[in-house]
Amino acid sequence: MDVTAAAKHGFTVNLSILFGELPLLERPAAAAAAGFTAAELWWPFGTEHSPSRAELDALRKAFSDAGVRLTGLNFLDDLSQGVRGTVSVPSEKERFRANVPVAAELAASLGATALNALYGNRVEGVEPAEQDALALENLVIAARAAHEIGAILLVEALNKAESPDYPLVSAAAAVEVVDRVNAATGLGNAKFLCDLYHLAKNGEDLAAVIDTYADRIGHVQIADNPGRNEPGTGELDFEDLFARLSAAGYSGSIGLEYRPSTGVSADSFGWLPRELRAAR
Question: Is 257 a catalytic residue?
Fold first, then answer.
C-alpha cells in the first residue's frame, strides 16, 4: 500500500484502543517506541468525571516522559460502560458540565488542540427535541472552553450497527450539529470529526463526504472496514482516501483508531512506514 499521499498529514495514535493490551500509563512510551510522537485519547478515567490530581498528574507524566504530545481528548464519554457520550443525556448534565473544565485543563497541559464531545444515546422516555436542546447548550459550553485553550470542538458521527441509539449516524447529521453550534457561539471552532470507518460502515460514499464537507472537517480517524482493524485488512482504499483528503484541502493529522488484527498493537503498523508516523 502506497500511503505517501498522507505524508503531509502525520499520524496520531489513539491510545484508548491501540496498545490497549498495556496499562494506560505504559501506552505513551509504547507509542513512542513504535515511532509515534502524538496520541489521542477517549476520556481515560472511565465514569469518573473529575479524577484526582494524582491521577491527572500521573497521566501527564506518562506523556511527558515518553516525549509524546496529546493532540486530542474526549470529554466525559462513559465509553467504558458502553455509553456513547453524555452531551445530550439529561441525567448527565451536571457531570458533563463539571467535566468540561477538567478535560480542557488536561488537554491544554499536554498541548491538545482538539476536544471531542460525543453526542450521547437517545434515552427512553425523553423527547428527542429535549435532548437536542440540551446537547446544544452543552456543546456551546464545550466550544467556549475549547476556544479558551486554543482548541477546536469535534462532533462525531458513529455507525448505526454498533451504536443503534446514537442519533448522529451520518456525516450530514453531525455537520448539522456543527453548524448549529457555530451559529450559537459565533466562534467557528466546532468541526466535524470525519471517522472514515464509521461512515463506511454506515454505507456512505466516502469520496462524496470528503468533497462535500472538507471545509468543516477538523480531524480524520481511520480503521479498515469491515473489522475495524488496521488498513489493509478490509476493503477501504486508503491510498485513494488520503489523496482525496489532501486534494480537498485537509492538512490535519490522521488518527489511527483501530483494533490490531492480531491483538498486538506493535505488530499492526507494517502498512505505515516508520518515517511517516511522526506528527507534522
Answer: yes
